[in-house]
Here is the input.
Amino acid sequence: MALISEWQAALARFHFERPWWLLAVPLLLALTAWLARRSASGGGWATLVDAPLLDALRLPEPQTASRASPWPWLALAWTLAVLALAGPTWQREPAAANSIPDGWVLVLDLSPSMLAPDAAPNRVSRARYAIEDVLRAAQGARIGLVVFSAEPYTVTPLTDDVATVRGLTGPLSPDLMPSSGNKLGPALAMAQQLLERSTTQGGHVVVLTDGYADPDQASAAAESLRERSTTVDVLAIGGAGSTASGGSSPSASPALPLPADGNAAAAGLATAEPVDRALLQQLARAGGGRVFELTEIPALLTQLQTKVPRSATALSDVEAERWRDAGVWLLPPLLLLVAGLARRGWW
Here is the structure.
């Protein structure tokens, strides 16, 4: 009785994973019947050659036992092939459950103001140190890097090769940019493109900047990222002399003399302009994130890491299953049939 119950349960679960392949069975059977009829009529020569002449042209049949017709076996082979492709199944098997890695895009400001020395040794160096901290914390996440001044540039797309990102970050400096400027909006749009090209759902964008010149466009790009469940956080790169109101405190770095050629970027700017925290707060609110100071990098890393462990933990206790495709068991008889049909004298 137990065996009968198991058979009944298996029949109740029996189905095809790709049932649309079954539509090919009647077509192939009709093709087999047409080929058999055509072969019996002399392969179509009967319509072109008179019957007496056709009989004279045919080779004499060997005096052997009558041959079996290959057409039923061909029909059976095609039917087995279609059934195997349709994926018959009635059992389940365990399957690995993998989480989609989180995506972090770092957007680095390389405008001339990032050479200001109020955050020793200068702002861009402190930003690179912060990126190094983020790379060390990227366990199970993919990292992308975008830099911007007047125009944005992709340094690396989303990748789990942290060593490559680290190697490309070291030489980054405003001196490498072809033109000076400070437009963040296009850089955020590029970050969104990097996330959309991957399978990452949601993600994080971290903007490392001391300010930007297109607040309306940047806020619109941050809101677009938030709509796709991507958080935009801002790491304010500036010295202790920067205040929330945008004014400079008495401890702000003094003005630096310009070099003889008047290149302000090469000297790290003539003055260390204070960081406008209100402007950065506006960007963070638009992107659903918050503004972090250089002293708050551990808090930023904690916020970034909360998404990766949570997604991995959510799938660690799930026993995923999938239907076991039993079509593979039809391949041995199918191969034997094909080998038999290929022998000499059957056609």
